[in-house]
Amino acid sequence: MGFVRRYAGALIVTFIAAVIASVLDGFMFALLIPFLRVVFDTASAVADAPTAVERVLEVVIGFALTQDRGASVRNVVLVILLVIAVKNVAAYGAAALGAYVQEGVGRDMRNSLYAHIQHLGLGFFQRMKGGQLISRMIVDIDQACRIVSAALVSAVQNVVLVAIYLAILFSLSWHLTLITLVLAPTIASIMRPIQLRIRKRMSMALNDRGEVAAIVSETVEGARLVKAHGAEGYERERFAQAAEHYFGGVVKAQRLVALAHPVSETLGAAVVLLLVVVGFSLGVGEGNGMRPELFIPFVVIALRLVSPVKALTQFPMHAEVSLAAADRVFEIVDERRVDVESDDARTFPGLTGVIEFDDVWFAYEPEAWVLRGVSLRVERGEIVAIVGASGAGKSTLVDLLPRFVEPSRGRILLDGVATSEYTRRSLRRAMGIVGQHTVIFNDTVRANIAYGEQGSADMEAVKAAARAANAHEFIERLPQGYDTVLGERGMRLSGGERQRIAIARALLRDPPILILDEATSALDIEAEKLVQGAIERLLENRTVFVIAHRLSTVARADQIVVLQRGMLVERGRHDELVAAGGVYQRLHHLEMVASRP
């Protein structure tokens, strides 16, 4: 409801319009009383012992009733038409404003959720599947918002309708009101267990839907791999199983929803039929019995009461579905923000001396150490290569520098100051990162190079960065040059071209600290040669951390760091480590053997 506060005015007007529509709806049926009395030519428009409804009608439309029957019928018909017109204008206003509030709240929830996601740590994205996140961002928020406006406004409207109808019926016969008041709580108590099961089932079904979306997302992203391995059949089977699971969950949930409908309708109809029976017994009698011109409106209103009563009994079911979706959305909102700044964090002024890892330990899960007591000193302008087997902790080590993750123990110092004392934004602005899996957005070449804070860069600066990255020539050959839209994940480009776009992006930023994470490992020889030439320019006058499996690419590093099971086991230059006969020599030997024809 915190998201509704912004729309409090619109929601109040919506409720007022809904109430007006409901009141006029009840008044419209009450107008049957004078209409029928005039049509049937009873003694007077108002009986000698008028009901409360008749007294109200006399005050409101007494002017329309004359001695001329034809004129009275015409006048009452015109009043009925006017009431119908005003009622529908009010109903339209309630519906239109309700839609505005609902979609506005949905938009604000999406914006808030997306902004919150930006502050979550990498651990969240490793746990949460992309399809699940998209499902919660779009489908679940849509479902959750329905309770805020459409369902809530409808509930208010139906509550007022029931109140108006009951007020009219009460004025005609208090016996009917007592029957309704006794039976309504009974209906609610019968329906409550069904409502709770619906919420549980819908929550499970929504989670299953997220799994289906996750498989689709993975398959689309890995389309090349799927086709290369002939795994289409396997993926079809995997999707079919997920779809079947989702199907089963939805069917179970819908069975409960379907059960709620006839149960609530049957109970509501039983109440109305009792009202009709009692009303009929009162209507056919003489003396103090209900007069015929009152009995017909009573039956019509009693039957009309079924719809709002049924809607109100079903409202909790719709609410449970919305709340189940809201639970999934706020499960993410309740995730602790990691990427937030402390009040005393300051701007990183730039590196002038040394980067130091001081006894750094890190674990994604308690006691599951990825890094163990790493201590490392890097002078400004040095090139440091980090090597080791997969899972040794190489990427995690460099992720600590821009504070993508924080050390579990120890510190990272920049010129003697802990990274935790600087804002993440200023740290990351001073670093350029080129990874193995290059991210290319579905935008123009220019927008991809001048991404983020560099968006205002002029075209000449963009072209200069592209030339330095050996990318200008192939960009010029694209259909619209720098204005060519590259498609989702840059599928129009080869791996080497995507990598050179990423290097141009880093060159345009001109960062003093550079992180290269397996930047050439996925490229063929020709592409690697072009990319390597771009990297040579990128390395100039920067402090560089290079992660590479191919040891030939790190031979020129000022120092090579060897990680094994999260521990720094060797450090030195290429020739020194090869001669030392340790882990690095073994890795070097394996690479030499693998490269032989």
Tally the helices: what do you get? 21
According to CATH, what is the class of the largest domain? Answer: Mainly Alpha
Strands in their spatial order, largest beta sheet: 6-7-8-3-9-10
CATH architecture of the largest domain: Up-down Bundle
Count of the domains: 2
Largest sheet: number of strands, sense, barrel closure: 6 strands, mixed
Low-confidence runs = 43-47, 284-288
Radius of gyration: 36 Å
Overall helicity: 55-70%
CATH topology name of the largest domain, in short, is: ABC transporter transmembrane region fold
| Separation, N- and C-terminal Cα atoms | 68 Å
Strand content: 5-15%
Mean pLDDT reading: 77
Specify the overall morphology: elongated
Which structural category fits the helices and strands? alpha/beta
Number of strands: 10
The named CATH superfamily of the largest domain: ABC transporter type 1, transmembrane domain
Q: What does it look like?
A:
By secondary structure, this protein is of the alpha/beta class. 61% of the residues lie in helices and 11% in strands. The protein has helices spanning 8-30, 32-39, 52-61, 69-118, 122-127, 130-145, 150-172, 174-221, 223-228, 232-283, 292-304, 306-333, 394-399, 424-429, 445-449, 459-468, 472-476, 495-509, 525-539, 574-580, 583-595, and strands at 354-365, 368-379, 383-387, 409-414, 417-418, 431-435, 513-517, 543-547, 559-564, 567-572. A hairpin with a 2-residue loop joins β9 and β10 (567-572). The chain is elongated. Mean pLDDT is 77; it is low at 43-47 and 284-288.
